């Protein structure tokens, strides 16, 4: 079982993902006497006093426990009146002492002076209030969506940007309150030449907070080229793999991401421009296990303000300014224009996303209910499905595809629905999924699904169900009937005397042939299945009942001339097949 890094340890970066070493504890590095460079020189791996231009300079620490402006005003007025009286007495020696009162203008001047003197304290109090409001908002979000459980071990994904740095410091402040164990994870995507500075910011924060850091480097551009993906998709997959591997290695149950309400609004608009339905217009969910998003109801402006007011350095990714990317264009060009008409555009889109998430939850419940109503062992009953409203049909098709391991876009759903209303057949879908429509059944299967077993032995008497094949067989001895023609196609009469043990069922092999009863000559099994209009996707798994001599019955299609019941036979073997 992988060991969890001790508190205060950090990882050492490698070029290969997943190669992580645990270095010495941060508290030892933090307190030991530096060696090597001369005084005034920055040690390698530490942030130099002169921060890079894209790093926000930390503000000086502020005292938020001072009196407010009202107390300052009252105290200064008490102190100012005796001073005015003393100055008046000194200005006119020998004169009779007189009371000095303030004119309205003097009172206003004094009030302005005191407010100016106390403005710094007032600002600090306002900043403290904002910080507390931010913490309360995160508390409410975690409670409402049940994102975290006390005592959990959480991996915090930190890129070095304002959102993730704010997330890290907020969770650290709430760590004791929620009894959390935190591990910080940072991935260098190898896209920008200055990513070492991102790591320096993250490392400095983890050292200061005394948290373990795990990091790795992945050459995302090379991976994107090798896998034929765009850069954004390759980076997302690399992050997911790294974070989930880190969570497994350290024994964490949750992965906290720094997505904000601003990201939700951008995603909603991004999906809207692509014609998404309710599922896509949900934006980003607060929780999609194991991922949780505690800042999902905070804006990006709030996270940046939090970092500035708390003196937390962060990095700005310059690629976020490239408006050739649609998401950046939405944020930098479209939203400012919309804000002229509605300054609360971001809040409106985020609120719409929450409502659509609730609507999608109701639709998902409806899909589950309808799917259960129209399902049967071999697939979906087309007659029942087509009796539902078209919108519900689409929900059932999506749910059935998901159950088979695939996810369909709307155009794929439409293609399946159109084929259902037409001639049927097979529809090739993404990721090797196929929809098969025939014999009043809609089924989904993967083209690459492994099928190891192809032969099943049958008893001489009794019933057996072959779950892998989806068929059951009942065998029994019976007196010879008055006619040798079975009552239904799924029943066969065989001569027990002519059968050579063992009796078994298997799937077709290439070149299988038999002498069909009543046809003369031989015929391939594939031709018989084609003539019987067995759907093409079912032919490879169609059951053949065989004995030691060969094929006795192509189930539901034709028996063999070599196994037929002849005149004078007093007893037959009755075999009845049934789909499960």
Provide the descriptors you would attach to this structure in a database record.
about 575 residues, Uridine Diphospho-n-acetylenolpyruvylglucosamine Reductase, domain 3, 4 domains, five-stranded antiparallel sheet, 17 helices, alpha+beta, Rossmann fold
Task: Describe what you observe in this structure.
The protein has 17 helices and 24 strands. With 580 residues, the chain is α+β, with helices and mostly antiparallel strands. The chain has four domains: 11-32 and 149-351, 3-Layer(aba) Sandwich (Rossmann fold); 61-91 and 100-146; 377-446, 2-Layer Sandwich (Uridine Diphospho-n-acetylenolpyruvylglucosamine Reductase, domain 3); 455-579, 3-Layer(bba) Sandwich (Phenylalanyl-tRNA Synthetase, Chain B, domain 3). The strands form six sheets. Strands 5-4-3-6-8-7 form a six-stranded mixed beta sheet, with helices on both faces. Helix 6 links the parallel strand 4 (181-188) and strand 5 (213-217). The protein is elongated, with a radius of gyration of 38 Å. The two termini are 43 Å apart. The model is unreliable at 1-120 (pLDDT under 50).
């Amino acid at each position: 079982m992988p060991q969890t890094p001790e508190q205060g340890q950090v990882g050492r970066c490698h070029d290969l993902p997943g190669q992580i070493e645990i270095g010495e504890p941060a508290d030892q590095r933090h307190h030991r006497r530096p060696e090597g460079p001369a005084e005034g020189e920055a040690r390698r791996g530490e942030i130099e006093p002169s921060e890079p231009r894209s790093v926000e300079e930390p503000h000086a620490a502020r005292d938020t426990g001072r009196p407010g402006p009202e107390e300052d005003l009252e105290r200064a007025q008490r102190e100012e009146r005796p001073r005015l009286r003393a100055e008046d007495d000194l200005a006119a020696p020998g004169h009779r002492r007189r009371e000095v009162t303030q004119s309205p203008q003097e009172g206003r001047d004094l009030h302005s002076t005191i407010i100016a003197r106390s403005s710094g304290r007032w600002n600090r109090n306002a900043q403290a209030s904002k910080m507390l409001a931010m913490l309360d908002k995160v508390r409410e979000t975690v409670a409402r969506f049940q994102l975290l459980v006390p005592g959990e071990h959480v991996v915090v994904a930190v890129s070095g940007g304002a959102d993730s740095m704010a997330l890290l410091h907020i969770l650290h402040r709430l760590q004791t309150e929620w009894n959390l164990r935190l591990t910080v994870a940072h991935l260098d995507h190898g896209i920008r030449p200055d990513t070492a500075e991102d790591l320096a910011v993250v490392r400095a924060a983890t050292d200061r907070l005394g948290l373990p850091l795990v990091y790795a480097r992945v050459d995302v551009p090379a991976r994107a080229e090798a896998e034929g993906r765009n850069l954004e998709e390759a980076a997302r997959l690399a992050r997911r793999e790294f974070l989930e591997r880190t969570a497994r290695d350290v024994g964490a149950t949750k992965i906290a991401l720094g997505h904000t309400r601003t990201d939700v609004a951008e995603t909603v608009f991004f999906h809207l421009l692509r014609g998404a339905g309710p599922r896509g217009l949900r934006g980003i969910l607060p929780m999609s296990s194991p991922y949780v998003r505690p800042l999902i109801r905070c804006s990006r402006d709030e996270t940046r303000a939090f970092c500035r007011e708390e003196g937390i350095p962060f990095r700005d990714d310059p690629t976020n300014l490239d408006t050739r990317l649609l998401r950046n264009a939405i944020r930098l060009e479209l939203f400012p224009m919309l804000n002229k008409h509605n300054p609360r555009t971001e809040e409106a889109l985020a609120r719409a996303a929450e409502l659509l998430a609730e609507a999608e939850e109701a639709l998902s419940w409806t899909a589950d209910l309808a799917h259960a109503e129209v399902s049967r062992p071999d697939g979906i009953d087309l007659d029942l499905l087509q009796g539902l409203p078209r919108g519900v049909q689409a929900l059932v098709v999506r749910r059935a595809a998901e159950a088979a391991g695939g996810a369909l876009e709307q155009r794929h759903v439409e293609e399946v629905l159109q084929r259902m209303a037409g001639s049927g057949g097979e529809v090739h879908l993404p990721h090797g999924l196929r929809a098969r429509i025939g014999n009043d059944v809609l089924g989904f299967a993967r083209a690459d699904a492994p099928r190891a077993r192809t032969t099943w032995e049958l008893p001489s008497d009794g019933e057996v169900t072959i779950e892998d094949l989806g068929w059951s067989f009942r065998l029994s001895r019976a007196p010879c009937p008055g006619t040798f023609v079975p009552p239904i196609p799924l029943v066969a009469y065989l001569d027990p005397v002519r059968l050579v043990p063992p009796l078994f069922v298997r799937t077709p092999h290439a070149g299988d042939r038999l002498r069909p009863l009543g046809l003369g000559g031989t015929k391939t099994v594939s031709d018989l299945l084609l003539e019987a209009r067995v759907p093409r996707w079912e032919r490879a798994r169609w059951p053949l009942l065989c004995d030691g001599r060969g094929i006795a019955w192509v189930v539901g299609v034709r028996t063999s001339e070599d196994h037929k019941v002849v005149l004078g036979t007093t007893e037959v073997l009755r075999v009845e097949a049934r789909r499960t």
